[in-house]
From TrEMBL:
It comes from the Eukaryota. CDD domains: INTS11-like_MBL-fold. GO terms for cellular component: cytoplasm; nucleus. Residues 253-372 form the Beta-Casp domain. Residues 20-233 form the Metallo-beta-lactamase domain. It comes from Macrostomum lignano. Its cofactor is Zn(2+). Transmembrane segments: none annotated. SMART domains: Beta-Casp, Lactamase_B. Keywords: Cytoplasm, Hydrolase, Metal-binding, Nucleus, Zinc. This is Integrator complex subunit 11.
Length: 615
């Protein structure tokens, strides 16, 4: 049942018309939720984290927020979490899936180490410590897929499988039965070699907040892209070159490792393949641990052979290997060439035109990866200027949904409004227009720091017996007379939902006797020289045309039953005075519930019969 209009307020502190630093504040039915708490790879100053002063200027974050929800372990979604909990002072609760909780501290510690290396070189950096990471993770409450978690009596969260990376989840937040928000984080609607596709039921949220990284892209065949990737890598190493593949430790790393492992085996290639030690090794450990989150093929073959135990790919234990002569392939973190081992290897290999770097995913503006994708041949790295002579290939193996996938998700969950985040403004405009034209839904794309309110209809959920909902007359205009709305029964607690009961059940519960109210409308007819049977036949024909032959039944010679709900009686009247005409009376009788049908039949009979009305 729909009641008055209300609103949901949203403020992006990050990822508003931008990619990176995801942090979305949502106010819904008196509760405030923070979705994600990430860092921005394109900044090395205070702009790396969301602007938490928006919260602190209004008081303590514990008074302002009810919960923080982290969608997955990528740093642009969780990288600021220890800073927010331990340095800004939020005490929790923080919700994420079990794989995300297991892997987050590994990536956060690696991020801290890389950042501290810059601090050692003289930069002033206010950053979290290893101890703060541990204290932060102690505030996390892990959740399972499709588990409904009650934050309080009315606030419920429910995670759905998002694909993308191990443990990634979309979160549905619902307050009572009134309003709900589905936040996607990052997701992929296409299955890959190690993960399944994102899935959500028809939850019909008041607002869908979706990423839009690839809002204007419709990807080509994945198989042709994989073939192109493998052939270019093979061609480079056969010509004596080295191939650098910058990846994040989890996600694309495993996808491309499985792809090259399979290709190397099929082509019987002997060129060594390495991946970054430590981080990627532990990542593979967690893929084995959380095998249930992978796709069906991985799970089915796991007993016979673990797809993450590679034959042709080995850990890069000795960093001096990258200086060895001869061809090789190296997977190195991170994926945007903004820091870490991938950037160090890039510096050494970039001047040699025999070498190649393959960028397999999205790169944020300001990173080295973004610059070389866009054609930069000279890169300034601090005081160092680097000539880029190596080949640069951009082959998107991104685990984000493309435009087709985003539209598929919108149709799948059927929201009442859509908000685009985690994307570029111009690309959002294209997708917004498409959603508005094809699905007729309101679409918003707020910038960072911009507060928007989404008007939504207040919805009241009531409990009703199945038999009442299956009544044939439920779709008729009189449907609101089909039942009575009663307060919750004691047995209905703690759901506290009102109940819609059929009239009989409501009367029985209230201890009341049923009274029946009937209407009878009469018409006086004159039909010279007509027999009663002829007139009854004519009246029956009118009723049959209105509802169908089988639903207008002739009974007792002069009585017609219509739908078993309205009775039409034709009877002769004695002559009045000296009148020489045949008089008849037509009686149309119906109950209060069937007033619409009875009145309609009465009007039809009146029009057909050329009569004089006498009431």
């Amino acid at each position: 049942l729909r009641t008055d209009m209300t609103s949901i307020s949203v403020v992006p502190l990050g990822a508003g018309q931008d990619v990176g630093r995801s942090c979305i504040l949502v106010s819904i039915a008196g509760r405030r939720i923070m979705f994600d708490c990430g860092m921005h790879a394109g900044f090395q100053d205070d702009r790396r984290f969301p602007d938490f002063t928006y919260i602190t200027k209004q008081g303590s974050p514990n008074d302002y927020l009810d919960a923080v929800i982290v969608s997955h372990f990528h740093l642009d979604h969780c990288g600021a979490l220890p800073y927010f909990t331990e340095m800004v002072g939020f005490d929790g609760p923080v919700y994420m899936t079990y794989p995300t909780k297991a892997i987050c501290p590994i990536l956060l510690e690696d991020y801290r180490k890389v950042t501290m290396e810059r601090k050692a070189s003289g930069e002033q950096i206010n950053f979290f410590t290893s101890e703060m990471i541990n204290k932060c993770m102690a505030k996390v409450r892990p959740v399972s897929l499709h588990e409904e978690v009650h934050v309080d009596a009315d606030l419920v969260i429910k995670p759905y499988y998002a694909g993308h990376v191990l443990g990634a989840a979309m979160f549905l937040v619902r307050v009572g039965d009134a309003q709900s928000v589905l936040y996607t984080g990052d997701y992929n609607m296409t299955p890959d070699r190690h993960l399944g596709p994102a899935w959500v039921d028809r939850c019909r949220p008041s607002l869908l907040i979706t990423e839009s990284t690839y809002a204007t892209t419709v990807r080509d065949s994945k198989r042709s892209r994989e073939r192109d990737f493998c052939e270019k890598v093979q061609r480079c190493v056969e010509q004596g070159g080295k191939v650098l593949i910058p990846v994040f430790a989890l996600g694309r790393a495993q996808e491309l490792c499985i792809l090259l492992e399979t290709y190397w085996e099929r082509m019987n290639l002997k060129v060594p393949i390495y991946f970054s030690t430590g981080l990627a090794e532990r990542a593979n450990h967690y893929y084995k641990l959380f095998i249930a989150w992978t796709n069906e093929k991985i799970k089915q073959t796991f007993v016979d052979r673990n797809m993450f135990d590679y034959k042709h790919i080995r850990p890069l234990h000795d960093k001096s290997v990258i200086d060895n002569p001869g061809p090789m392939v190296v997977f190195a973190t991170p994926g945007m060439l903004h820091a870490g081992q991938s950037l160090q290897i890039f510096k050494k290999w970039a001047p040699d035109e025999r070498n190649m770097v393959v960028i397999p995913g999205y790169c944020v503006a300001g990173t080295v990866g973004y610059k070389i994708i866009n054609g930069a041949k000279k890169i300034e790295l601090g005081k160092q200027s680097l000539d880029v002579r190596m080949a640069v290939e951009y082959l998107s193996f991104s685990a984000h949904a493309d435009a087709r996938g985003i539209m598929q998700l919108v149709r799948m969950c059927q929201p009442r409004a859509v908000m685009l985040v985690h994307g570029e403004s111009a690309k959002m405009d294209f997708l917004r227009q498409r959603i508005q034209q094809e699905l007729q839904l309101p679409v918003l794309k707020p910038a960072n720091g911009e507060s928007v309110a989404i008007e939504t209809e207040q919805v009241m959920v009531v409990e009703a017996p199945v038999g009442l909902l299956h009544r044939r007359d439920w779709s008729e205009p009189a449907r609101l007379r089909a039942g009575l709305l009663l307060p919750p029964s004691e047995s209905a607690l703690p759901a506290k939902r009102p109940r819609l009961l059929a009239r009989d059940a409501a009367l029985k519960e209230a201890g009341l006797a049923e009274h029946s109210l009937r209407f009878t409308t009469s018409l006086s007819l004159w039909s010279p020289h007509s027999q009663l049977s002829d007139l009854v036949t004519k009246v029956h024909a009118v009723c049959a045309r209105a509802v169908g032959d089988r639903l207008a039944q002739l009974q007792d010679g002069n009585t017609i039953s219509v739908l078993d709900r309205v009775t039409v009686l034709v009877k002769p009247l004695p002559p009045v005075g000296r009148q020489q005409r045949d008089n008849f009376q037509l009686l149309v009788s119906y109950s209060f519930e069937n007033e619409d049908l009875g009145s309609r039949l009465f009007s039809l009979l009146k029009q057909e019969a050329k009569i004089e009305q006498s009431l």
